Amino acid sequence: MFATNSRSSFAHSAFGLKLATINLFNFIEPPGAFYEFSNIYTEEQWHQKRAWLNRYIGSYQPDIIAFQEVFSASALKALLEPLGYRFFSVVDEPEPIDEYVYRSPVVTLASRYPILSALPLRADPELSLKLGMNEDFEYSRLPLFATLELPSLGQTDVYVVHLKSKRPMMEEKKEGVERTLHDSICAEISGSWASSIQRGSEACHLMASILTRRSHTNNPAIVMGDFNDDIDSEVLSAFHMSGLRSITEDMADLPLSHYQMHDSWDLYVKNIEDSSLDRPSTHYFHAKGSVLDYILLSNEFNSSDPASIAEVGDFHCEDKHLINPKFDHDTYSSDHAIVSVTISLRQ
């Protein structure tokens, strides 16, 4: 059984908070170009890209949206304001390569509810040394860490992330030096592993920041974004709490489950008691689907915990532009599906 928009049968309160994560795939306003000067949208292409996003928001009306691959944050903010997103945050800027040409897109956060604070999430030098890395290690893309004031939930911490991709971190080819097939294969293997190390280290830093913040505030926590890997992979093992053997003294007054981050899909399937659902893919490479985009939730949203205050009432994967695209609507949409969940208060 395949689910792209399934709804649970249990009763909900009137409160419903909808979260969404959207990889916008090179969202850049002309005459800006992404990566190469030839990558400039025409006005018609730029219109199609914005219209696609408008249609999704008009149909599903998320309350809080995490965006990735944003080059033109001001254009995105201007698009969202008339749609009811009064609050918008961005904490980084894309890197210029040349005049009008940029790389290193950023993440942003849009909300219908107040964003009390928004900061870039930096890597901890001390943790980097413990991981056997240089103390100047940094995320490939700076995560956004925000605290929002949400109805019924109060102050809630939201993390927007775009972890390192699986593309190999290749060494620069030296001028005048020809690469053999052997050199190319070795570079591909080592570059892929370097990407995995970077992505896994980013996951460690992110989870450490969440744990520290939870131990100090007990705010509910939400992580949204493009993880560029399977959440159950060894590379992202930092998100798996089941293997922990000890906790620090300042956490000892709360159970370990308090610090667990849960995959919203798992919470949804558990709530509707239907383990036969096939999880929809959020990205396709050579027709092979994978799940790269996630919404993780802290234990306050885990209905199995008697102390929880909310639960996942609905899970939706918007993927029509990937599996059944319409040329006029979807050509300049995204190469990722949109993941959204609806949170309901527990009865």
Automatic annotation (TrEMBL):
GO terms for cellular component: membrane. The keyword Nuclease applies. Residues 44-336 form the Endonuclease/exonuclease/phosphatase domain. GO terms for molecular function: endonuclease activity; exonuclease activity. Pfam families: Exo_endo_phos. Keywords: Endonuclease, Exonuclease, Hydrolase, Nuclease. One of its GO terms (biological process) is GPI anchor biosynthetic process. PANTHER family: CALCOFLUOR WHITE HYPERSENSITIVE PROTEIN PRECURSOR, ENDONUCLEASE_EXONUCLEASE_PHOSPHATASE DOMAIN-CONTAINING PROTEIN. This is Endonuclease/Exonuclease/phosphatase family protein. The lineage of its organism: Bacteria, Pseudomonadati, Pseudomonadota, Gammaproteobacteria, Vibrionales.
